[in-house]
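User: Hey, my collaborator sent me this sequence without any context and asked if I could get a structure. I don't really work with proteins. Can you help?
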Amino acid sequence: MAENFDVIIIGAGPGGYVCALRAAQLGMKVACVERRATLGGTCLNVGCIPSKALLHSSENFYAASRTLADHGVVVGGVKLDLARMMARKDEVVGANVKGVEFLFKKNKITWLKGSARILRAGVVSVDGAEYAAKHIVIATGSESMPLPGVEVDEKHIVSSTGGLELSAVPQHLVVIGGGYIGLELGSVWLRLGAAVTVVEFCDRLVPTMDQEIAKTFERILTKQGMKFRLNTKVTGARVDKTGVTLALAPVTGGDGAELKTDVVLLAIGRRAYTEGLGLDEIGVDRDERGRIKTDAHYATSVAGIHAIGDVITGPMLAHKAEEEGVALAENLVGQAGHVNYGAIPGVVYTWPEVAAVGKTEEELKSAGTKYRVGKFPFTANGRARAMGETEGFVKLLAEEKSDRLLGAHIIGPDAGALIAELVTAIEFGASAEDVARTSHAHPSLSEAVMEAALALAGRALHI
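Assistant: No problem. I've predicted the 3D structure and written it out in structure-token form, which is a compact way to encode the shape of the chain:
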């Protein structure tokens, strides 16, 4: 007889494992299906965590070889030990995935190891063994988007997974895609000594972000040595003993030619991963992009089956999936779980970092919303000057009449941490005046946020 659970969650990435933890906290009998040898999904194993480890390590290498002398710290004979850097990255990953396994044991969550297939509402098969549950949650995440004519072999042409495992610094790395993943990994290898060229289909980087921020971002990365081919599409790739030759073509006003390189990183986005789940057979509806359709409570078209994270609509962000996992678990026990999608931050962990929450100027203009803009540069922030990190600015957008904060955009040092205050402000419906009149420690980078809020009323103090 099949073992019974209150909920079976398919996928142990950030959405799945957090949903499992919250459901267990709420007294449910929980199982989580994961076919990897470790928990944590793409994020902890081959995504967010290892990439941030390499970003931090490469920043340290760059500082030791390029910028510490400005601070009176003279380091001689700096050498790159890439093998040790990669080993440290793997150690960081190992500690994180073991932490999730510990939490599963602590909360008495059953790990069903293998591949899941939903046989019908209430029944899941895991490598042939059947399990029953009142609720089934699909949290299988996403996979790298393929590009016709560019075949990934994880050696010469790599996905983000292969981009984290290179055994040597390439002389030339071409990144296809000017979004979060491509720019982060491109930054890693640029700092370690590679020449990096980014080929982007659109006429700008990070197309979903505020255009002014994107233009500044491009200027800063260009100053660091990264090169860009915008308005350009890749139509094919040829691999031989000497490397990879990419065929390029103009989109609108872009250039087209062949581009020779050692390694290509394909990072044009991700797509929902639902392979092998049997969704068509049981009647789970999906949209034109393969994402699972859900209602406001994450219920699919089949009663008792729910979906969260990258497999449904919305930004493919680990913290978005986590929020949905918590909300769904609470909904299943009758609580009022909810996610405010207008207050989900996005961060590009390059240096400087780029962070945003809420509306962009372009979105407000398109909607006909009357708004005001307040900006403050890090060049005028005392702490940024002391750090020697003065690139970038804070930009706030507020509704013209009510002064309610509608959007916040930061490019600069620790932008990913600074955005948290503004996420909270938007979550609570704060005005720019609320942010401006909140005491910010001196000297701190957060004062730039306060000054941008003051600038919305035309009364910034330090510019």
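In plain terms: The mean pLDDT is 97. You can pass these tokens on to your collaborator as they are.
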